[in-house]
Amino acid sequence: MCPDIRGQRRDLAVEERLEEARGLALAIGLEIADSFVLPVRDVRPNLLFGSGQVDNIAIACEQNEAELVVIDGALTPIQQRNLEDRLKRKVIDRTGLILEIFGERAATAEGRLQVELAHLDYQQSRLVRSWTHLERQRGGFGFLGGPGETQIEADRRMIRQRMGRLRRELEQVRRTRALHRERRGRAPWPVIALVGYTNAGKSTLFNRLTGAEVMAEDLLFATLDPTMRALALPGVEKAILSDTVGFISDLPTQLVAAFRATLEEVTAADLICHVRDMANEAAGVQKGEVLRILGELGVIEEEGGPSTIPILEIWNKWDAAGADRRAELEPLAAGAEDVAIVSALTGEGLDELLARLGTRLTGGARTVEFTIPASDGRRLAWLHAHGEVIEERDAGESDRLITVRLNAKELGQFESL
Question: Of 56, 62, 271, 411, which alpha carbon lies 20 to 30 A from 308's?
Fold first, then answer.
């Protein structure tokens, strides 16, 4: 259920927020017995809802034989415990639900580390409801005196120790990723990062462009672990395309912190492709959420502000947008250099997108002439492999004059040879 709290800022309409909550529940395989919006005039510190509203929830649970209640909002540990006592059922909030999805989907060792850290961070404040033996105390050492260490203190200590180990392991992951990025920076291939709201179609587009088989389903958070593949573009011998985890409104702070090592891949990209689900009426709100998270990563200074990395908007799911919706959007996209219209499902617009990507990556290229000894096969081969050779001819008895188009990055790499 979705609590509609008076005075609280809501970007998504209540009905859209409820539909998104249903999508999160379906993403983890829950069978939805009922879903509804509850207006909350005054937030009750003990239950969130009023007593009468809690009774109505209990009746709905009995009528539908529901075993789990999902609250699409943040619950304090006390509210969660009291609701479970009143409803006699398991209760989880939005953060708990998203953590469950991430825990089920994380496939790599790195992803599992990130999810476990986020889950422990979330769970340590909820030990009061998770254990039935918290009133017990362990006997202290005789020479120390006092009542000893309570069970809850011991459990929290063990959680803190485990979180410390996970943070150290993730720090090693971060350093390893930084080294990989440094090596890629020395390589001639530009990096393109796909970002966007969850279920915008990033993985479907990624598979279409690269021939990969990344999980791509009509589910929220179908992809968690970043994937990279090579991509051929007009004027570019090879580029690296990176698929990233989807963003969502009210993404738990624990997850933003835990996945920062993964999201840092975006900050090292040469071009960011913001994939948008234009068949969704809430596409504008979703864009704002993506820009907010990019701002947290330092990619843009503020929403609507300048970007430190070029951003190309990919308006996806064009086939699913109705005629009225397309008629509304087409004038906005016409002539816009930073917008490409595609359907990753049908392949519509992909050739134009590839051409646009190639132009973006070679936009700063310039024509340069080099005179190179004919015996220097290494540098001649490098120019043929990484630049656009316009002309090559003899220049004297032992030299070759080669005219080639290179962007600034490639020119710097060639000069370093």
Answer: 411
